[in-house]
């Protein structure tokens, strides 16, 4: 009896264009490509921009709190922060209350980048062709999905 391979064209669940994971992945690639020239003008990489966004919201976070906020482990975050410190955008220093904790603080140059980056969200909205309200709704849906996928079973 010959081994018959199922015809995936009859199973829509196995079509690439029906995969949420691929839609999210390819949209992420497109978004990163959109951001690249905008961030190149600031001499920031996309991960560095994400760090700056968090620190512009709340300066002085611990490395671990920053990692939690960005879903990055310390092995990924520490070299990133070292490069950003060498660029003069932030400083890492031991906490005065708990020397085991390292805090991250913006420098004057790091705070100045916020003004330079202010036009980036508008450029992204314009490139998307969606109204801000639709993009905010989509963002909330993706955040809810992330929460559900990362919640303990």
Main traits of this protein?
2 domains; Arc Repressor Mutant, subunit A; single chain; mainly alpha; 153 residues
Topology overview:
Layout lengths: L19 H21 L5 H12 L5 H8 L3 H13 L3 E5 L7 E5 L1 H10 L2 H9 L3 H19 L3
Antiparallel strand pairs: 1-2
Tell me what the structure shows.
The chain has 153 residues and is mainly alpha-helical. 60% of the residues lie in helices and 7% in strands. It folds into two domains: 42-118, Winged helix-like DNA-binding domain superfamily/Winged helix DNA-binding domain (Arc Repressor Mutant, subunit A), CATH 1.10.10.10; 119-153. It has helices at residues 20-40, 46-57, 63-70, 74-86, 108-117, 120-128, 132-150, and strands at 90-94, 102-106. A two-stranded antiparallel sheet has the order 1-2. The longest helix has 21 residues, at 20-40. The chain is globular, with a radius of gyration of 20 Å. The model has no long low-confidence stretch (mean pLDDT 93).
CATH homologous superfamily of the largest domain - what is it? Answer: Winged helix-like DNA-binding domain superfamily/Winged helix DNA-binding domain
What CATH architecture of the largest domain do you see?
Orthogonal Bundle
- This entry's quaternary arrangement is single chain
Total domain modules: 2
Question: Which structural category do the helix and sheet elements fall into?
Answer: mainly alpha
Low-confidence stretches: none
User: Mean pLDDT score, rounded?
Assistant: 93
Tell me the name of the CATH class of the largest domain: Mainly Alpha
Shape: globular
Query: How much of the residues is beta strand, in percent?
Result: 5-15%
| Termini gap | 42 Å
Order of helices and strands: HHHHEEHHH
Beta-strand segment tally:
2
Number of helices: 7
Largest sheet: 2 strands, antiparallel
């Amino acid at each position: 009896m010959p081994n018959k391979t199922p015809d995936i064209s009859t199973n829509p669940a196995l079509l690439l264009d029906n995969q949420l994971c691929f839609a999210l992945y390819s949209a992420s690639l497109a978004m990163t490509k959109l951001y690249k020239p905008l961030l190149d003008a600031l001499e920031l990489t996309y991960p560095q921009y994400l760090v700056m966004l968090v620190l512009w919201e709340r300066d002085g976070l611990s490395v671990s709190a920053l990692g939690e906020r960005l879903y990055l482990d310390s092995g990924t975050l520490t070299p990133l922060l070292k490069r950003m410190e060498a660029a003069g955008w932030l400083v890492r220093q031991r906490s005065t209350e708990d020397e085991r904790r390292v805090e991250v603080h913006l420098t004057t140059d790091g705070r100045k980048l916020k003004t330079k980056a202010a036009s980036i969200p508008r450029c992204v909205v314009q490139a998307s062709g969606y109204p801000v309200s639709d993009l905010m709704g989509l963002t909330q849906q993706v955040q809810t999905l992330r929460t559900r996928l990362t919640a303990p079973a």
